[in-house]
Specification:
Elements lengths: L2 E2 L3 E3 L6 E3 L6 E6 L8 H9 L7 E8 L2 E10 L6 H9 L3 H4 L4 E5 L6 E5 L2 E5 L7 H4 L1
Parallel strand pairs: 6-7, 7-9
Antiparallel strand pairs: 1-4, 2-3, 4-5, 5-6, 8-9
Length: 136
């Protein structure tokens, strides 16, 4: 059974909680696979970064403006919280998101970088709320 992730973010000011779905078009995020399993592309990209695929969790992320879910793979050591990645990706127009088959975020303490390979978007280290990382 899929695990749901509540789309909630804590703002710095007064530790006030805000439902993220009221800020962007995000609706649900589910983890359809068991811990340590991911699609072949996520597994390959993780191994190419000299990381262990068992440390990657795979999610289906659904947004209100499109009926198709996006696949998000996140390594447990990536410094960006899952909710931040979902929020930033949801701010992209649906047409822009349509060019992405899946997204993977991996740790790399030596650099913040990104690349696109056949519609698979890989990002390393902290995105820091920078939407331009997704569209460079």
């Amino acid at each position: 059974m899929a695990e749901s992730v509540k789309l909630e973010i804590i703002l710095n000011e007064n530790n006030r909680k805000t439902d993220l779905s009221s800020k962007v078009c995000s609706t649900t995020c589910t983890r359809p696979t068991a811990h340590g399993t991911s699609g072949a592309d996520c597994r390959t990209m993780t191994q190419n970064a000299d990381l262990n695929p068992i440390d990657v969790q795979t999610y289906n992320v659904h947004y209100d403006d499109c009926s198709t879910a996006w696949v998000l793979c996140r390594h447990k050591s990536n410094p960006d919280p899952l909710i931040n990645i979902i929020d930033l990706f949801g701010r992209l127009p649906v047409k822009t998101r349509s060019y992405v088959r899946l997204m993977i975020v991996l740790p790399d303490p030596n650099s913040g970088r990104a690349y696109n390979s056949n519609g698979n978007l890989a990002m390393f280290n902290r995105i820091n709320g920078d939407l331009t990382v997704f569209v460079h």
